[in-house]
Amino acid sequence: MLDGSAPPKAELQPQLYASRVKIFPKSVSGFYRRLKWQMLWLLLALYYVAPWLRWDRGAGAPDQAILVDAEQGRLFFFMIEIWPQEVYYLTGLLIMAAIGLFLATSLAGRVWCGYACPQTVWTDLFIWVERLIEGDRAERIRLDRASWTFSKLARRTAKHTAWVLISLVTGGAWVMYFTDAPTLVSDALRLDVSATVLTFVGLFTATTYLLAGWAREQVCAYMCPWPRIQSAMLDDHSLVVTYQAWRGDRRGAKRKSESWDERTVKGLGDCIDCSQCVHVCPMGIDIREGWNGDCINCGLCVDACAPIMDTVGRPRGLISYDTLSNSAARAEGRPTHWTAIRPRTVVYALILLVITAIMSGTLLLRPRLDISIERDRAPLFVELSDGAIRNGYTVKISNMTRNTRSYALSVTGIPEALVQVVGHDQQEGPVDIEVRSDFIATFRVTVKASRDVLKAASTGIAFSLVEGAGGETAVYDSVFLAPEPMR
Protein backbone atom coordinates (compact mmCIF):
# COMPACT_ATOMS: atom_id res chain seq x y z
CA MET A 1 0.00 0.00 0.00
CA LEU A 2 1.15 3.60 -0.55
CA ASP A 3 0.92 4.39 3.15
CA GLY A 4 3.20 1.48 4.01
CA SER A 5 0.50 -0.60 5.65
CA ALA A 6 0.14 -4.29 4.87
CA PRO A 7 -2.34 -5.23 2.15
CA PRO A 8 -5.62 -6.68 3.41
CA LYS A 9 -5.83 -10.44 3.50
CA ALA A 10 -7.98 -11.98 0.81
CA GLU A 11 -11.18 -13.41 2.18
CA LEU A 12 -11.42 -17.16 1.72
CA GLN A 13 -14.57 -18.12 -0.13
CA PRO A 14 -16.09 -21.44 0.89
CA GLN A 15 -15.80 -24.03 -1.87
CA LEU A 16 -19.15 -25.71 -2.34
CA TYR A 17 -18.03 -28.06 -5.10
CA ALA A 18 -14.52 -29.26 -5.86
CA SER A 19 -13.49 -29.23 -9.50
CA ARG A 20 -13.19 -32.68 -10.98
CA VAL A 21 -9.72 -34.21 -11.04
CA LYS A 22 -9.45 -36.35 -14.15
CA ILE A 23 -8.78 -39.99 -13.48
CA PHE A 24 -6.70 -42.06 -15.89
CA PRO A 25 -6.93 -45.67 -14.63
CA LYS A 26 -3.89 -47.77 -15.46
CA SER A 27 -4.26 -51.24 -16.95
CA VAL A 28 -3.56 -54.10 -14.57
CA SER A 29 -3.61 -57.88 -14.71
CA GLY A 30 -4.44 -60.37 -12.02
CA PHE A 31 -7.21 -62.52 -10.58
CA TYR A 32 -9.72 -59.74 -9.91
CA ARG A 33 -9.10 -58.04 -13.24
CA ARG A 34 -9.76 -61.36 -15.02
CA LEU A 35 -12.89 -61.82 -12.95
CA LYS A 36 -14.08 -58.34 -13.92
CA TRP A 37 -13.44 -59.08 -17.61
CA GLN A 38 -15.41 -62.32 -17.37
CA MET A 39 -18.32 -60.59 -15.66
CA LEU A 40 -18.21 -57.71 -18.16
CA TRP A 41 -18.38 -59.88 -21.27
CA LEU A 42 -20.99 -62.17 -19.71
CA LEU A 43 -23.28 -59.29 -18.71
CA LEU A 44 -22.86 -57.49 -22.04
CA ALA A 45 -23.63 -60.73 -23.90
CA LEU A 46 -26.78 -61.24 -21.82
CA TYR A 47 -27.89 -57.65 -22.40
CA TYR A 48 -27.38 -57.61 -26.16
CA VAL A 49 -28.50 -61.20 -26.89
CA ALA A 50 -31.54 -61.51 -24.58
CA PRO A 51 -33.98 -59.62 -26.90
CA TRP A 52 -33.23 -62.13 -29.67
CA LEU A 53 -34.18 -65.21 -27.64
CA ARG A 54 -37.44 -66.82 -28.74
CA TRP A 55 -40.16 -68.57 -26.70
CA ASP A 56 -43.19 -70.26 -28.27
CA ARG A 57 -46.40 -69.10 -26.54
CA GLY A 58 -48.84 -70.31 -29.16
CA ALA A 59 -50.63 -68.72 -32.06
CA GLY A 60 -51.25 -64.99 -31.84
CA ALA A 61 -48.86 -64.46 -28.92
CA PRO A 62 -45.44 -62.74 -29.16
CA ASP A 63 -42.57 -65.22 -29.37
CA GLN A 64 -39.89 -62.95 -27.88
CA ALA A 65 -38.66 -64.54 -24.65
CA ILE A 66 -38.25 -61.24 -22.77
CA LEU A 67 -40.64 -58.49 -23.81
CA VAL A 68 -42.35 -55.50 -22.20
CA ASP A 69 -45.43 -55.14 -24.40
CA ALA A 70 -46.60 -51.61 -23.63
CA GLU A 71 -49.37 -51.76 -26.25
CA GLN A 72 -51.11 -54.71 -24.58
CA GLY A 73 -49.85 -53.92 -21.09
CA ARG A 74 -48.02 -57.23 -20.61
CA LEU A 75 -44.61 -58.28 -19.42
CA PHE A 76 -43.31 -61.55 -20.85
CA PHE A 77 -40.39 -63.45 -19.32
CA PHE A 78 -40.08 -66.86 -20.92
CA MET A 79 -43.03 -68.90 -19.52
CA ILE A 80 -44.16 -66.09 -17.19
CA GLU A 81 -46.72 -63.51 -18.30
CA ILE A 82 -47.50 -60.55 -16.04
CA TRP A 83 -50.75 -58.65 -16.64
CA PRO A 84 -51.41 -55.01 -15.62
CA GLN A 85 -53.36 -56.02 -12.51
CA GLU A 86 -50.43 -58.19 -11.44
CA VAL A 87 -47.94 -55.33 -11.24
CA TYR A 88 -47.39 -56.24 -7.58
CA TYR A 89 -45.08 -59.00 -8.83
CA LEU A 90 -42.72 -56.29 -10.08
CA THR A 91 -42.88 -54.66 -6.65
CA GLY A 92 -41.98 -57.99 -5.07
CA LEU A 93 -39.13 -58.42 -7.54
CA LEU A 94 -37.73 -55.00 -6.64
CA ILE A 95 -37.95 -55.85 -2.94
CA MET A 96 -36.12 -59.12 -3.58
CA ALA A 97 -33.41 -57.25 -5.50
CA ALA A 98 -33.01 -54.74 -2.66
CA ILE A 99 -32.76 -57.43 0.03
CA GLY A 100 -30.34 -59.39 -2.16
CA LEU A 101 -28.20 -56.26 -2.46
CA PHE A 102 -28.32 -55.79 1.31
CA LEU A 103 -27.16 -59.38 1.79
CA ALA A 104 -24.33 -59.11 -0.76
CA THR A 105 -23.14 -55.84 0.79
CA SER A 106 -23.15 -57.23 4.33
CA LEU A 107 -21.03 -60.14 3.10
CA ALA A 108 -18.60 -58.46 0.70
CA GLY A 109 -19.16 -54.70 0.65
CA ARG A 110 -19.89 -52.99 -2.68
CA VAL A 111 -19.14 -56.12 -4.69
CA TRP A 112 -22.24 -55.41 -6.83
CA CYS A 113 -20.83 -51.98 -7.67
CA GLY A 114 -17.42 -53.38 -8.56
CA TYR A 115 -18.53 -56.20 -10.84
CA ALA A 116 -22.17 -56.09 -11.95
CA CYS A 117 -23.52 -52.52 -11.81
CA PRO A 118 -24.36 -51.30 -15.36
CA GLN A 119 -22.47 -48.05 -14.70
CA THR A 120 -19.33 -50.04 -13.83
CA VAL A 121 -19.72 -52.44 -16.77
CA TRP A 122 -20.15 -49.76 -19.45
CA THR A 123 -17.50 -47.48 -17.91
CA ASP A 124 -15.06 -50.39 -17.95
CA LEU A 125 -15.91 -50.99 -21.61
CA PHE A 126 -15.42 -47.32 -22.51
CA ILE A 127 -12.07 -47.16 -20.69
CA TRP A 128 -10.95 -50.29 -22.54
CA VAL A 129 -11.79 -48.63 -25.86
CA GLU A 130 -10.03 -45.46 -24.72
CA ARG A 131 -6.93 -47.46 -23.83
CA LEU A 132 -6.91 -49.20 -27.22
CA ILE A 133 -7.00 -45.88 -29.07
CA GLU A 134 -5.03 -43.50 -26.82
CA GLY A 135 -2.71 -45.86 -24.94
CA ASP A 136 -2.25 -46.65 -21.27
CA ARG A 137 -2.27 -44.22 -18.37
CA ALA A 138 0.98 -42.34 -18.97
CA GLU A 139 0.30 -41.91 -22.68
CA ARG A 140 -3.26 -40.71 -22.04
CA ILE A 141 -2.03 -38.16 -19.52
CA ARG A 142 0.53 -36.83 -21.99
CA LEU A 143 -2.10 -36.68 -24.73
CA ASP A 144 -4.51 -34.83 -22.45
CA ARG A 145 -1.89 -32.21 -21.56
CA ALA A 146 -0.55 -31.83 -25.11
CA SER A 147 -1.65 -29.03 -27.40
CA TRP A 148 -4.09 -29.82 -30.15
CA THR A 149 -2.46 -31.44 -33.18
CA PHE A 150 -3.81 -33.54 -36.02
CA SER A 151 -2.75 -36.71 -34.21
CA LYS A 152 -4.57 -35.71 -31.02
CA LEU A 153 -7.67 -34.68 -32.97
CA ALA A 154 -7.67 -37.99 -34.87
CA ARG A 155 -7.36 -40.04 -31.70
CA ARG A 156 -10.05 -38.11 -29.85
CA THR A 157 -12.37 -38.32 -32.85
CA ALA A 158 -11.83 -42.08 -33.13
CA LYS A 159 -12.45 -42.56 -29.41
CA HIS A 160 -15.66 -40.55 -29.28
CA THR A 161 -16.91 -42.15 -32.50
CA ALA A 162 -16.42 -45.58 -30.93
CA TRP A 163 -18.17 -44.43 -27.76
CA VAL A 164 -21.15 -43.12 -29.74
CA LEU A 165 -21.42 -46.36 -31.74
CA ILE A 166 -21.38 -48.45 -28.53
CA SER A 167 -23.97 -46.11 -27.02
CA LEU A 168 -26.14 -46.39 -30.12
CA VAL A 169 -26.05 -50.18 -30.01
CA THR A 170 -26.81 -50.01 -26.29
CA GLY A 171 -29.79 -47.70 -26.81
CA GLY A 172 -31.07 -49.82 -29.69
CA ALA A 173 -30.80 -53.00 -27.63
CA TRP A 174 -32.75 -51.38 -24.79
CA VAL A 175 -35.63 -50.48 -27.10
CA MET A 176 -35.67 -54.10 -28.33
CA TYR A 177 -36.93 -55.15 -24.91
CA PHE A 178 -40.10 -53.15 -25.65
CA THR A 179 -40.70 -54.24 -29.24
CA ASP A 180 -39.96 -57.28 -31.38
CA ALA A 181 -36.20 -57.25 -32.04
CA PRO A 182 -36.13 -58.69 -35.61
CA THR A 183 -39.00 -56.42 -36.65
CA LEU A 184 -37.24 -53.36 -35.23
CA VAL A 185 -33.99 -54.15 -37.03
CA SER A 186 -35.87 -54.79 -40.29
CA ASP A 187 -37.71 -51.47 -39.95
CA ALA A 188 -34.46 -49.66 -39.15
CA LEU A 189 -32.77 -51.07 -42.28
CA ARG A 190 -35.71 -49.81 -44.34
CA LEU A 191 -35.55 -46.45 -42.53
CA ASP A 192 -39.12 -46.99 -41.39
CA VAL A 193 -38.85 -46.35 -37.64
CA SER A 194 -41.42 -44.41 -35.62
CA ALA A 195 -40.61 -41.14 -33.91
CA THR A 196 -41.20 -42.78 -30.53
CA VAL A 197 -38.56 -45.43 -31.18
CA LEU A 198 -36.09 -42.83 -32.46
CA THR A 199 -36.69 -40.68 -29.39
CA PHE A 200 -35.99 -43.47 -26.93
CA VAL A 201 -32.98 -44.79 -28.86
CA GLY A 202 -31.57 -41.25 -28.90
CA LEU A 203 -32.29 -40.81 -25.19
CA PHE A 204 -30.53 -44.01 -24.14
CA THR A 205 -27.68 -43.39 -26.58
CA ALA A 206 -27.08 -39.95 -25.05
CA THR A 207 -27.28 -41.16 -21.43
CA THR A 208 -24.91 -44.07 -22.09
CA TYR A 209 -22.41 -41.79 -23.82
CA LEU A 210 -22.54 -39.13 -21.09
CA LEU A 211 -22.57 -41.42 -18.04
CA ALA A 212 -20.02 -44.01 -19.17
CA GLY A 213 -17.84 -41.73 -21.29
CA TRP A 214 -17.81 -38.44 -19.39
CA ALA A 215 -19.29 -38.77 -15.90
CA ARG A 216 -17.75 -42.15 -15.04
CA GLU A 217 -16.77 -42.23 -11.35
CA GLN A 218 -18.81 -39.10 -10.63
CA VAL A 219 -21.99 -41.16 -11.07
CA CYS A 220 -20.84 -43.44 -8.26
CA ALA A 221 -19.54 -40.63 -6.07
CA TYR A 222 -22.33 -38.05 -6.47
CA MET A 223 -25.37 -39.46 -8.24
CA CYS A 224 -25.74 -42.96 -6.77
CA PRO A 225 -27.28 -43.11 -3.28
CA TRP A 226 -25.78 -46.50 -2.46
CA PRO A 227 -22.44 -45.23 -1.00
CA ARG A 228 -24.48 -43.34 1.63
CA ILE A 229 -26.71 -46.34 2.39
CA GLN A 230 -24.10 -49.09 2.43
CA SER A 231 -22.60 -48.06 5.78
CA ALA A 232 -25.80 -49.29 7.43
CA MET A 233 -25.33 -52.69 5.76
CA LEU A 234 -21.68 -53.19 6.74
CA ASP A 235 -20.15 -54.33 10.00
CA ASP A 236 -16.63 -55.18 11.15
CA HIS A 237 -17.01 -58.70 9.72
CA SER A 238 -17.86 -57.67 6.15
CA LEU A 239 -15.24 -58.41 3.53
CA VAL A 240 -13.94 -55.19 2.01
CA VAL A 241 -10.76 -54.18 0.20
CA THR A 242 -8.41 -53.37 3.06
CA TYR A 243 -4.92 -51.93 3.36
CA GLN A 244 -3.01 -53.61 6.19
CA ALA A 245 -1.65 -50.41 7.70
CA TRP A 246 -0.01 -52.27 10.59
CA ARG A 247 2.23 -53.96 8.05
CA GLY A 248 2.69 -51.28 5.40
CA ASP A 249 3.25 -48.05 7.36
CA ARG A 250 5.41 -46.05 7.59
CA ARG A 251 5.54 -45.84 3.83
CA GLY A 252 8.68 -44.99 1.94
CA ALA A 253 10.56 -45.69 -1.28
CA LYS A 254 13.04 -48.59 -1.25
CA ARG A 255 16.49 -48.42 -2.78
CA LYS A 256 17.82 -51.56 -4.43
CA SER A 257 20.79 -51.64 -2.05
CA GLU A 258 18.58 -51.25 1.01
CA SER A 259 17.74 -54.40 2.97
CA TRP A 260 14.48 -54.97 4.80
CA ASP A 261 16.33 -55.05 8.10
CA GLU A 262 17.59 -51.54 7.40
CA ARG A 263 14.06 -50.41 6.62
CA THR A 264 12.81 -51.94 9.84
CA VAL A 265 15.43 -50.03 11.81
CA LYS A 266 14.23 -46.83 10.13
CA GLY A 267 10.67 -47.68 11.12
CA LEU A 268 9.53 -48.25 7.51
CA GLY A 269 6.94 -50.86 6.54
CA ASP A 270 6.30 -53.06 3.50
CA CYS A 271 4.66 -50.30 1.40
CA ILE A 272 7.29 -48.79 -0.88
CA ASP A 273 4.95 -45.91 -1.80
CA CYS A 274 4.83 -46.82 -5.51
CA SER A 275 1.21 -45.58 -5.76
CA GLN A 276 0.28 -48.37 -8.19
CA CYS A 277 -2.85 -49.05 -6.13
CA VAL A 278 -3.96 -45.45 -6.74
CA HIS A 279 -3.08 -45.47 -10.45
CA VAL A 280 -5.28 -48.50 -11.22
CA CYS A 281 -8.27 -47.39 -9.12
CA PRO A 282 -11.25 -46.43 -11.33
CA MET A 283 -12.50 -44.18 -8.50
CA GLY A 284 -9.14 -42.45 -8.04
CA ILE A 285 -8.98 -43.13 -4.28
CA ASP A 286 -6.01 -44.13 -2.15
CA ILE A 287 -6.97 -47.25 -0.22
CA ARG A 288 -3.94 -46.71 2.02
CA GLU A 289 -5.69 -43.77 3.64
CA GLY A 290 -8.23 -46.19 5.13
CA TRP A 291 -11.53 -47.64 4.04
CA ASN A 292 -13.38 -45.21 1.81
CA GLY A 293 -17.11 -45.11 1.10
CA ASP A 294 -16.37 -44.44 -2.58
CA CYS A 295 -14.46 -47.74 -2.91
CA ILE A 296 -16.44 -50.07 -5.19
CA ASN A 297 -14.62 -53.21 -3.97
CA CYS A 298 -13.39 -54.13 -7.44
CA GLY A 299 -10.05 -55.45 -6.12
CA LEU A 300 -7.88 -53.92 -8.86
CA CYS A 301 -5.62 -52.39 -6.22
CA VAL A 302 -5.09 -55.92 -4.87
CA ASP A 303 -3.93 -57.02 -8.33
CA ALA A 304 -1.66 -53.97 -8.59
CA CYS A 305 -0.01 -54.49 -5.20
CA ALA A 306 0.58 -58.25 -5.41
CA PRO A 307 3.31 -58.21 -8.13
CA ILE A 308 5.05 -55.30 -6.40
CA MET A 309 5.32 -57.39 -3.24
CA ASP A 310 6.69 -60.27 -5.34
CA THR A 311 9.29 -57.95 -6.86
CA VAL A 312 10.55 -56.63 -3.53
CA GLY A 313 10.46 -60.05 -1.89
CA ARG A 314 7.62 -59.47 0.58
CA PRO A 315 4.51 -61.64 1.06
CA ARG A 316 1.34 -60.73 -0.77
CA GLY A 317 -1.71 -59.43 1.07
CA LEU A 318 -0.62 -55.90 1.92
CA ILE A 319 -3.88 -54.96 0.18
CA SER A 320 -6.49 -57.70 0.22
CA TYR A 321 -10.12 -58.58 0.77
CA ASP A 322 -10.35 -58.68 4.53
CA THR A 323 -12.58 -57.65 7.41
CA LEU A 324 -11.80 -54.72 9.66
CA SER A 325 -11.92 -57.01 12.69
CA ASN A 326 -9.40 -59.43 11.15
CA SER A 327 -7.11 -56.58 10.16
CA ALA A 328 -7.13 -55.30 13.75
CA ALA A 329 -6.52 -58.84 15.04
CA ARG A 330 -3.49 -59.29 12.78
CA ALA A 331 -2.05 -56.00 13.96
CA GLU A 332 -2.23 -57.29 17.53
CA GLY A 333 -1.07 -60.81 16.72
CA ARG A 334 -4.43 -62.39 17.61
CA PRO A 335 -6.04 -65.27 15.65
CA THR A 336 -8.46 -64.33 12.86
CA HIS A 337 -11.68 -65.84 11.61
CA TRP A 338 -14.50 -64.98 9.23
CA THR A 339 -18.00 -66.33 9.05
CA ALA A 340 -20.81 -65.55 6.66
CA ILE A 341 -23.42 -66.57 9.24
CA ARG A 342 -24.03 -63.49 11.33
CA PRO A 343 -27.24 -61.94 12.72
CA ARG A 344 -27.66 -59.42 9.89
CA THR A 345 -26.86 -61.92 7.12
CA VAL A 346 -29.26 -64.45 8.64
CA VAL A 347 -32.03 -61.84 8.83
CA TYR A 348 -31.45 -60.72 5.23
CA ALA A 349 -31.32 -64.33 3.99
CA LEU A 350 -34.53 -65.26 5.82
CA ILE A 351 -36.37 -62.20 4.50
CA LEU A 352 -35.19 -63.01 0.97
CA LEU A 353 -36.21 -66.66 1.37
CA VAL A 354 -39.69 -65.77 2.64
CA ILE A 355 -40.36 -63.22 -0.11
CA THR A 356 -39.08 -65.64 -2.76
CA ALA A 357 -41.33 -68.41 -1.43
CA ILE A 358 -44.38 -66.12 -1.36
CA MET A 359 -43.68 -64.83 -4.87
CA SER A 360 -43.14 -68.35 -6.24
CA GLY A 361 -46.23 -69.74 -4.53
CA THR A 362 -48.56 -66.99 -5.69
CA LEU A 363 -47.11 -67.16 -9.20
CA LEU A 364 -47.70 -70.90 -9.46
CA LEU A 365 -51.19 -70.76 -7.94
CA ARG A 366 -52.44 -67.52 -9.48
CA PRO A 367 -55.79 -67.69 -11.28
CA ARG A 368 -56.02 -67.28 -15.03
CA LEU A 369 -59.33 -65.41 -14.71
CA ASP A 370 -59.85 -61.95 -13.29
CA ILE A 371 -62.82 -59.62 -12.99
CA SER A 372 -62.96 -55.95 -12.06
CA ILE A 373 -66.12 -53.85 -11.77
CA GLU A 374 -66.77 -50.12 -11.64
CA ARG A 375 -70.22 -48.94 -10.62
CA ASP A 376 -71.80 -46.01 -12.47
CA ARG A 377 -71.59 -42.75 -10.53
CA ALA A 378 -74.04 -40.75 -12.65
CA PRO A 379 -76.78 -41.54 -12.18
CA LEU A 380 -76.36 -43.51 -8.95
CA PHE A 381 -79.52 -45.45 -9.75
CA VAL A 382 -82.50 -45.33 -12.08
CA GLU A 383 -86.09 -45.77 -10.87
CA LEU A 384 -88.06 -47.62 -13.53
CA SER A 385 -91.75 -47.17 -14.39
CA ASP A 386 -92.69 -50.43 -12.63
CA GLY A 387 -91.05 -49.18 -9.41
CA ALA A 388 -87.95 -51.36 -9.74
CA ILE A 389 -84.47 -49.93 -9.22
CA ARG A 390 -81.64 -50.38 -11.71
CA ASN A 391 -77.89 -49.83 -11.25
CA GLY A 392 -75.31 -49.77 -14.01
CA TYR A 393 -71.81 -51.26 -13.93
CA THR A 394 -68.76 -51.53 -16.19
CA VAL A 395 -67.39 -55.07 -16.01
CA LYS A 396 -63.90 -56.00 -17.22
CA ILE A 397 -63.08 -59.69 -17.61
CA SER A 398 -59.50 -60.85 -18.17
CA ASN A 399 -59.15 -64.20 -19.91
CA MET A 400 -55.49 -64.97 -19.23
CA THR A 401 -55.47 -68.21 -21.20
CA ARG A 402 -54.66 -69.06 -24.82
CA ASN A 403 -58.20 -70.27 -25.56
CA THR A 404 -61.59 -68.58 -25.93
CA ARG A 405 -63.63 -69.13 -22.76
CA SER A 406 -67.34 -68.96 -21.91
CA TYR A 407 -68.39 -67.67 -18.51
CA ALA A 408 -71.61 -67.41 -16.52
CA LEU A 409 -72.15 -64.04 -14.78
CA SER A 410 -74.52 -63.83 -11.84
CA VAL A 411 -75.21 -61.61 -8.82
CA THR A 412 -75.85 -62.60 -5.21
CA GLY A 413 -76.92 -60.47 -2.25
CA ILE A 414 -80.33 -59.34 -3.53
CA PRO A 415 -83.20 -61.84 -3.96
CA GLU A 416 -84.38 -62.28 -7.55
CA ALA A 417 -82.01 -59.63 -8.90
CA LEU A 418 -81.98 -59.59 -12.70
CA VAL A 419 -78.62 -59.23 -14.48
CA GLN A 420 -78.50 -58.01 -18.07
CA VAL A 421 -75.48 -57.44 -20.31
CA VAL A 422 -76.08 -54.58 -22.74
CA GLY A 423 -76.21 -56.00 -26.24
CA HIS A 424 -77.15 -59.51 -25.04
CA ASP A 425 -80.60 -61.02 -25.01
CA GLN A 426 -82.50 -60.72 -21.72
CA GLN A 427 -82.42 -64.00 -19.78
CA GLU A 428 -83.26 -65.33 -16.36
CA GLY A 429 -80.45 -66.49 -14.09
CA PRO A 430 -76.75 -66.26 -14.96
CA VAL A 431 -75.79 -64.47 -18.17
CA ASP A 432 -73.50 -66.30 -20.61
CA ILE A 433 -70.46 -64.27 -21.73
CA GLU A 434 -67.72 -65.27 -24.15
CA VAL A 435 -64.21 -63.76 -23.98
CA ARG A 436 -61.57 -64.50 -26.57
CA SER A 437 -58.13 -65.75 -25.61
CA ASP A 438 -55.52 -63.53 -23.98
CA PHE A 439 -57.89 -60.57 -23.88
CA ILE A 440 -59.52 -58.09 -21.51
CA ALA A 441 -63.19 -57.74 -22.50
CA THR A 442 -65.34 -54.82 -21.31
CA PHE A 443 -69.12 -55.11 -20.85
CA ARG A 444 -71.90 -52.76 -19.77
CA VAL A 445 -74.00 -54.60 -17.19
CA THR A 446 -77.20 -53.57 -15.43
CA VAL A 447 -78.69 -55.08 -12.26
CA LYS A 448 -82.42 -54.69 -11.67
CA ALA A 449 -84.09 -55.32 -8.33
CA SER A 450 -87.61 -54.93 -6.96
CA ARG A 451 -87.92 -52.07 -4.50
CA ASP A 452 -89.77 -54.31 -2.07
CA VAL A 453 -86.69 -56.47 -1.40
CA LEU A 454 -84.37 -53.51 -0.76
CA LYS A 455 -84.10 -52.83 2.95
CA ALA A 456 -81.50 -50.04 2.82
CA ALA A 457 -80.16 -47.33 0.54
CA SER A 458 -77.00 -49.38 0.01
CA THR A 459 -76.96 -53.15 -0.30
CA GLY A 460 -73.83 -55.25 -0.64
CA ILE A 461 -73.78 -57.55 -3.66
CA ALA A 462 -71.25 -59.91 -5.21
CA PHE A 463 -70.69 -60.54 -8.90
CA SER A 464 -69.74 -64.13 -9.58
CA LEU A 465 -68.04 -65.26 -12.78
CA VAL A 466 -67.80 -69.02 -13.40
CA GLU A 467 -66.01 -70.70 -16.29
CA GLY A 468 -68.10 -73.53 -17.75
CA ALA A 469 -69.04 -76.37 -15.42
CA GLY A 470 -66.76 -76.52 -12.41
CA GLY A 471 -64.14 -74.23 -13.91
CA GLU A 472 -62.37 -71.24 -12.40
CA THR A 473 -64.42 -68.76 -10.43
CA ALA A 474 -63.85 -65.05 -9.86
CA VAL A 475 -65.85 -62.97 -7.37
CA TYR A 476 -66.03 -59.18 -7.05
CA ASP A 477 -67.83 -57.36 -4.24
CA SER A 478 -69.79 -54.19 -5.02
CA VAL A 479 -72.86 -52.28 -3.83
CA PHE A 480 -76.38 -51.67 -5.11
CA LEU A 481 -77.78 -48.20 -4.42
CA ALA A 482 -81.42 -47.24 -4.09
CA PRO A 483 -83.58 -44.47 -2.61
CA GLU A 484 -83.96 -44.37 1.13
CA PRO A 485 -86.68 -46.92 2.07
CA MET A 486 -90.02 -45.42 3.10
CA ARG A 487 -90.70 -45.58 6.84
Describe the structure using short key phrases.
487 residues, alpha+beta, 16 helices, four-stranded antiparallel sheet, elongated, 14 strands
Describe it.
The protein has 487 residues and is α+β, with helices and mostly antiparallel strands. Helices cover 40% and strands 18% of the residues. It is built from 16 helices and 14 strands. The chain has helices spanning 31-49, 88-108, 111-115, 118-134, 137-145, 150-176, 181-189, 195-215, 217-223, 226-229, 245-248, 260-265, 276-279, 300-312, 324-331, 343-365; strands at 66-69, 74-77, 80-82, 240-243, 319-322, 369-375, 382-383, 389-399, 405-412, 418-421, 431-435, 439-449, 458-467, 473-481. Strands 6, 7, 8, 10 and 12 form a five-stranded antiparallel beta sheet that branches. Strand 13 (458-467) and strand 14 (473-481) form a beta hairpin. Helix 6 (150-176) crosses helix 8. The protein is elongated.
Helix-and-strand structural type: alpha+beta
Low-pLDDT residue intervals, each spanning 5 or more residues: none
SSE pattern, N- to C-terminal: HEEEHHHHHHHHHEHHHHEHHEEEEEEEEE
Total strands: the figure is 14
Helix and strand topology:
Blueprint: H1 31-49, E1 66-69, E2 74-77, E3 80-82, H2 88-108, H3 111-115, H4 118-134, H5 137-145, H6 150-176, H7 181-189, H8 195-215, H9 217-223, H10 226-229, E4 240-243, H11 245-248, H12 260-265, H13 276-279, H14 300-312, E5 319-322, H15 324-331, H16 343-365, E6 369-375, E7 382-383, E8 389-399, E9 405-412, E10 418-421, E11 431-435, E12 439-449, E13 458-467, E14 473-481
Helix pairs in contact: 1-4, 2-16, 4-6, 4-8, 6-8
